[in-house]
DNA sequence: TTTCTTACA
DNA sequence: TGTAAGTA
């Protein structure tokens, strides 16, 4: 499927529940790679949104930016100026209704973290 | 009006 | 992270 980057900051903010500040920050940290057309404005795709959602969960789960970065590797398999995104994805939420607020596609990671929390003490920190 | 960047609280 | 300033 193709990822059309037509989602504006406003949309991204509403869809992810993150602040524009956070989204831009994650962008700077190379956690997401939104398109950049029209007056330097960011344009996200559904994939970017989902990626943002994963990042959000990871961060709120107590992980640092570096941790997230190591888990979600830079997907650009660029050629030269124009790069293709092939983190096209793992799951298509296009026609799936989200009835849960935990759209993590990476379930194994989640399980691992949860298990870890059980065996070792767990932390629930920063935001 | 909204987003962008830079910079400060 | 939030918010202000000055743009585009």
TrEMBL record:
* Chain coiled-coil ranges: none
- Keyword Cytoplasm in the entry? The reply is no
For this UniProt entry, which segments traverse the membrane? none
One of its Pfam families is MerR_1
**Which keywords appear in this protein's UniProt record, sorted alphabetically?**
DNA-binding, Repressor, Transcription, Transcription regulation
Keyword Transcription regulation attributed: yes
Report a single Gene Ontology molecular function. Answer: DNA binding
Protein name per UniProt: MerR family glutamine synthetase transcriptional repressor
Q: Which branch of life, at top level?
A: Bacteria
Which PROSITE patterns does this entry report, sorted A to Z? Answer: HTH_MERR_2
Database matches in InterPro entries:
DNA-bd_dom_put_sf, MerR-type_HTH_dom, MerR_fam
The record's listing under SMART domains reads:
HTH_MERR
Species for this entry: Halanaerobium congolense
PANTHER family in the record: HTH-TYPE TRANSCRIPTIONAL REGULATOR TNRA, REDOX-CYCLING DRUG-SENSING TRANSCRIPTIONAL ACTIVATOR SOXR
* Domain called HTH merR-type: residue spans: 6-74
């Amino acid at each position: 499927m193709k990822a059309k980057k037509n989602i504006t900051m406003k949309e991204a903010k509403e869809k992810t529940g993150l602040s524009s500040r956070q989204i831009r920050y994650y962008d700077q940290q190379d956690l997401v790679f939104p398109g950049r057309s029209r007056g330097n404005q960011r344009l996200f795709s559904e994939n970017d949104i989902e990626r943002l959602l994963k990042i959000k969960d990871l961060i709120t789960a107590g992980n640092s930016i570096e941790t997230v970065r190591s888990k979600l590797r830079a997907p650009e398999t660029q050629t030269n100026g124009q790069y293709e995104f092939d983190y096209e994805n793992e799951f298509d939420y296009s026609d799936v209704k989200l009835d849960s607020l935990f759209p993590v596609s990476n379930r194994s990671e989640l399980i691992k973290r949860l298990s870890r929390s059980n065996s070792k003490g767990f932390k629930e920190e920063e935001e």
